[in-house]
């Protein structure tokens, strides 16, 4: 997208979403020449979390690139909060891997 197209798309977004997107893009602009963009992502590989006999998260794979916004949708008990808790390090995964900015979580 050109800068003008990106600005136009932001105007169509909810104001809170647009402000957060601007903030994320500003951080990306300060990160340097982009050579290390591959290290500035969130990557989940075969993420799994089991509580006793209950599988809360089953083999989730995804990556989030710099500047992207990601939402997790699902019913109560689908594992959304468990995924976030694993990304932030509050819970350890039963299996799989999490990488944030090139570092294993």
How is the secondary structure organized here?
Elements: H1 3-12, H2 15-29, E1 42-51, E2 54-64, H3 80-87, E3 95-100, E4 103-104
Antiparallel strand pairs: 1-2, 1-3, 3-4
Radius of gyration: 16 Å
**What is the name of the CATH superfamily of the largest domain?**
P-loop containing nucleotide triphosphate hydrolases
Class by alpha and beta content = alpha+beta
Query: What number of structural domains do the residues give?
Result: 2
Largest sheet: 4 strands, antiparallel
Share in β-strands: 25-35%
Topology as H/E string? HHEEHEE
Low-confidence stretches: 30-37
Mean pLDDT across residues = 81
Briefly note the CATH topology name of the largest domain: Rossmann fold
The CATH architecture of the largest domain comes to: 3-Layer(aba) Sandwich
What is the topology, as strand order, of the major beta sheet? Answer: 2-1-3-4
CATH class of the largest domain: Alpha Beta
Q: Report how far the terminal alpha carbons are from each other.
A: 33 Å
* Number of helical regions: 3
**Helical content band:** 25-40%
Shape descriptor = elongated
The beta-strand count equals 4
Report on this structure.
GO terms for molecular function: ABC-type transporter activity; ATP binding; ATP hydrolysis activity; lipid transporter activity. Residues 58-103 form the ABC transporter domain. The protein is of the alpha+beta class and 105 residues long. The chain has helices spanning 3-12, 15-29, 80-87; strands at residues 42-51, 54-64, 95-100, 103-104. A four-stranded antiparallel β-sheet has the order 2-1-3-4, with helices on one face. It starts with a helix and ends with a strand. The model is unreliable at 30-37 (pLDDT under 50).
